[in-house]
Amino acid sequence: MDFAQATLTLLVLYMALTIYIVYRGARQTKNIQDFAVGKGFSPLMVGLSLAASITSAATFIINPGFVAFFGWSAFLAMSIVLPIGLFLSLIVLSKSFRKFGTSVKALTLAQWMGNRYNSKVMSYLMAFVALTHHVYRFDLCRTDQSNSQCLAGR
Asked: Which of 70, 103, 105, 114 is the most buried (most CB within 10 A)?
């Protein structure tokens, strides 16, 4: 078996495993709370999911470019300060956020903020900020691809 065949075989196996996991998860998802909140998942599974999303492509694509552009200060920020701040904030805040979110049955950050501050305006404002944040990040990199300073995809 040459390299191309081995690569194709591993890719097909990976796709089959992914489809199996998706199928199994879809069978166990009965409503929006199962999907959005992950009801029934252990804290370990939620933590592993969060770790996977944090260490996504940004870790391998965007962060090295950020460090190459800004140098040692970015290296120290990305490799020391950011992980310490992230883990400390997760340890300190996650339990109370989850407890309140569960008590008010909030499925989104906008719902959580609106319920927390008992304000529809806050809920709409948070939804608007989240939406414009994603649109702004996409538009900034789309219109400025030729510029090496396009770091908005972080």
From this structure: 114
- Give the domain extent around 113: 108-154
pTM tops 0.90, yes or no: no
Domain assignment present for 127: yes
Q: How many domains does the chain have?
A: 1
**Could you read off the pLDDT of 67-95 as tens digits, one per residue?**
888 899 989 988 888 888 888 887 787 77
- One DSSP character per residue, 18-47 reads HHHHHHHHHHH--SHHHHHT-TT--HHHHH
Residue type, 74: A
54: nearest Cα among 21, 77, 76, 82: 82
* 8 A C-beta contact, residue 154 and residue 58: yes
Quick one: pLDDT band at residue 150, thresholds 50, 70, 90?
A: low
Q: Which of 32, 120, 104 is nearest to 112 (CA)?
A: 104
